[in-house]
Amino acid sequence: MMDVTDRKQASDEVGLRVVVSHQLDAVVGMNWMLELAAQSPGCHRRRATTSRTRANQRRLATLVNDLLDISRSRAGACRCHRPVKSAR
Predict the structure, then answer these.
(1) Which burial class, exposed, middle or buried, applies to 50 when counting CB atoms under 10 A from its CB (0-12, 13-18, 19+)?
(2) Which is more confident, 71 or 32?
(3) What distances in angstroms separate CA 76 from CA 18, 35, 45, 52, 59, one per listed residue?
(4) What is the pLDDT of residues 4-42, one digit of tens each?
(5) Domain count of the chain?
(6) What domain range includes position 59?
(7) Which string of b and e fits 1-26 if b means at least 16 CB within 10 Å?
(8) Mean local confidence (pLDDT), 47-51
(9) Is the residue at 42 inside a domain?
(10) pTM score, two decimals?
């Protein structure tokens, strides 16, 4: 049985996920538009910037997922998994 504190913490986590997901989606969308604009001739600097932005988006998403995993772990509801490594 969950007490009020556990329910509040779970609610806060869901709220955080919604806000962060929304913000990341906005960044992805804006970067997509910049990437389209960077396809114009003579936009080499803009292409490099959008490439760095894309890499930073991935890092940020990984950090957010790690923080949420830690939060779930503390709440006793961890769904931690190890990434599957390809055999090369």
Answers:
(1) buried
(2) 32
(3) 21, 41, 47, 36, 26
(4) 676 676 667 777 777 877 788 888 888 888 888 888 887
(5) 1
(6) 23-70
(7) eeeeeeeeeeeebeeeeeebeeeeee
(8) 82
(9) yes
(10) 0.54
